[in-house]
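pinging the channel bc i need a second pair of eyes. not urgent but kinda urgent?? the chain im working w is below, pasted from the shared doc
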Amino acid sequence: MSLFDLTLPAEKAAEYGAAVLYDEPMSAHTTFKIGGRCDMMIKINCEGLLRELVILCAKQGIPYYIIGRGSNILVSDNGLRGIVLLLCGDFASAHIDGDIIECQAGASLGAICSLALSNSLTGLEFAYGIPGTVGGAVYMNAGAYGGEMKDVLLSCRCIDENGEIRTVPREKMELGYRTSIFSKKNYCVTSVALKLQKGDPAAIKERMDTLMSRRKEKQPLEYPSAGSTFKRPAGDFAARLIEASSLKGLSVGDAQVSEKHSGFIINKGSASFGDVCELIERVKDKVYSDSGIMLECEVLIME
């Protein structure tokens, strides 16, 4: 039984026709396939509902967690008390106006990359294969293979700490390595405008296919994980430091430093939250002992 009265959030979701799930296993909503049950999950289907729930939870003192495809989080085996607001398939519409793609925050990056390709728009190829949502990618300024979200962002709509909806232009987003104004101030991104360029569809597809092949070749995509576990330290690479400390393949339970790419911690089958957390700390301690560099976790730990 929840410690919180969730009657009002459930009623508000019903007003908007949004799906409500109780006692939902978070392991079904994270790419790590780890996590206990949450008290309530609401599948957000519009910005208005999200805003009303954020305000309601603040007034009622109900903890809430906003997630998308769960690709960069590690959730406790004890689950989450309060409400999980899921921005995913029910909040994923997109449309194109010339060379601008406007999409809701729950749209998957893969789907938007494919939409860009089908409309001969280039600039987003670097994101093809990143398993998150557009909103999550903006939140952390996701990037790969020489590109970052800041390269293609035009503006975002978000809900601020007071529950107000605001539009933020790219120059006000404070975009840096795996950070943004949204993560610094815990704003919730609701929609995104991306500015791309017209390009040759064959060249765009070739670039997307090439990057996907590189991901499959170099990353342990065959196992559940949350992507790169650690942020890149200044002037170096987490994977190089981990490998230099002879940690490739190190395991705690079913959590393992990937033998394919040491920057990834993977779930080999039934890894627990505790297994992954202990392995993260062991890696950080050994790398710091060997190099004097303290790795910073990129994965968001939720407990």
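so The helical segments are 7-15, 47-60, 109-118, 134-139, 181-185, 201-218, 238-244, 273-291. and The longest helix spans residues 273-291. — does that match what u expected or am i reading it wrong
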